């Protein structure tokens, strides 16, 4: 029989047990959580002492909640970082980890990731986030409504005028059907039309582009679709029932939306049967807005080493393949893009990849939310017909330049 003193000696010789660490990972898209659950489960299989708790925060609250948690020193260990938010400011302020030394020390191979995506998350020559995906915007259309109206499906010959004329044919007030829904927002709205008219939201020298006639004309085209052609619900009506809901219930024949919407529409029986995608109609040029997401480590994390282990796995081909197979978003690993296209064969997801050559990275600066909120607020008034487009864009240019001028202070 082993005495208590001998048992205590054996326990002491065995040394301390591994302490389990739970990392907090913050995201905003619930459509991507199932794939991330698979990815983090695989990570924990290889790292049994590290668990991952995924926190889904609504997109509209994400930036505010993240900033609040950083101020309170209770931010997630790892979180999604996006260019339209405060990536540059977080990097400049040292609130996210510089990853260069860790990448070099561990020999992490980032070559499968598109160079443009790595450049997007580089600040003063150093990488501060591992790119996870990118996106473009396409023209989603309802095949059943097109068939009922006798209108041919969209293709790459479409222009703004084609969009306008066919939207008129597809609009059926008696049935509550609109030919198109104008999105009074950035990614699925202004940014695409402005780029297609060779205008700028933000110039290369970090000035507002809303004093450019090309930019104002793009906003005018959007306003005319609502106020003159009446092929789109009003701004107020779209706030009550958004574009995605109208599209999923057969009330909208066409909407602009991103590659990130594919999984949501595939999970809906109506859109899975009736929806498809074409490249965006061309203005004076062909263009799509494009964004990218990356994973960053909070510099105040108490578990930086474990967080880095997670980031390495998230950057791996295995993680990219799981994400691509789920059909949620286009992976940053370009050699996995076809897996994403094939994940939902009912949709022409290739259209989103066809827009890559015409993609323009979304406008961003150190304080993007500071001026984008002004932009959205004032342009919405123009789309509602409360002020003229010229009045709105002039005011946006003035206020936006004030915010931009204060960014370096």
UniProtKB/TrEMBL annotation:
It comes from the Bacteria. Transmembrane segments: none annotated. InterPro entries: Bact_solute-bd_prot1 (IPR050490), SBP (IPR006059). Its main location: periplasm. Keywords: Periplasm, Signal, Transport. One of its GO terms (cellular component) is periplasmic space. The keyword DNA repair does not apply. Part of the ABC transporter complex UgpBAEC involved in sn-glycerol-3-phosphate (G3P) import. Binds G3P. The complex is composed of two ATP-binding proteins (UgpC), two transmembrane proteins (UgpA and UgpE) and a solute-binding protein (UgpB). Belongs to the bacterial solute-binding protein 1 family. This is sn-glycerol-3-phosphate-binding periplasmic protein UgpB. It comes from Devosia limi DSM 17137.
């Amino acid at each position: 029989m082993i005495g208590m003193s001998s048992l205590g000696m054996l326990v002491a010789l065995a040394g301390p047990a591994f302490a389990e660490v739970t990392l907090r990972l913050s995201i905003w898209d619930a459509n991507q959580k199932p794939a991330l659950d698979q990815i983090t489960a695989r990570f924990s299989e290889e790292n049994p002492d590290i668990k991952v708790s995924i926190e889904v925060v609504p997109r509209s609250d994400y930036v505010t909640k993240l900033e609040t948690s950083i101020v309170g020193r209770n931010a997630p260990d790892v979180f999604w970082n996006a260019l339209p938010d405060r990536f540059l400011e977080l990097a400049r302020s040292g609130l996210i980890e510089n990853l260069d030394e860790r990448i070099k020390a561990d020999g992490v191979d980032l070559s499968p990731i598109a160079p443009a995506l790595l450049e997007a998350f580089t600040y003063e020559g150093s990488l501060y986030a591992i790119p996870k995906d990118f996106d473009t915007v396409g023209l989603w259309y309802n095949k059943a409504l097109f068939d009922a109206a006798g209108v041919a499906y969209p293709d790459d010959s479409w222009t703004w005028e084609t969009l306008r004329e066919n939207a008129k044919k597809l609009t059926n007030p008696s049935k509550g059907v609109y030919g198109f829904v104008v999105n009074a927002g950035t990614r699925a709205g202004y940014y695409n039309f402005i780029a297609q008219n060779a205008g700028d939201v933000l110039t290369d020298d970090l000035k507002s582009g809303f004093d450019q006639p090309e930019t104002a004309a793009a906003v005018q085209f959007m306003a005319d679709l609502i106020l003159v052609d009446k092929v789109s619900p009003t701004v107020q009506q779209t706030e009550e029932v958004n574009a995605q809901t109208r599209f999923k219930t057969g009330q909208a024949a066409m909407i602009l939306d991103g590659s990130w919407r594919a999984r949501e529409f595939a999970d809906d029986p109506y859109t899975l049967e009736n929806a498809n995608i074409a490249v965006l109609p061309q203005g004076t040029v062909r263009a799509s807005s494009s964004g990218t997401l990356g994973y960053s480590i909070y510099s105040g994390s108490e578990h930086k080493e474990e967080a880095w282990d997670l980031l390495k796995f998230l950057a791996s081909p295995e993680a990219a393949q799981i994400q691509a197979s789920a059909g949620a978003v286009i992976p940053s690993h370009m050699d996995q893009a076809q897996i994403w296209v094939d994940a939902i064969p009912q949709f022409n997801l290739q259209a989103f990849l066809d827009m890559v050559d015409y993609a323009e990275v979304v406008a961003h600066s150190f304080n993007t939310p500071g001026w984008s909120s002004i932009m959205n607020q004032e342009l919405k008034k123009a789309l509602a017909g409360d002020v003229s487009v010229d009045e709105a864009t002039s005011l946006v240019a003035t206020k936006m330049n004030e915010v931009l001028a204060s960014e370096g202070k």
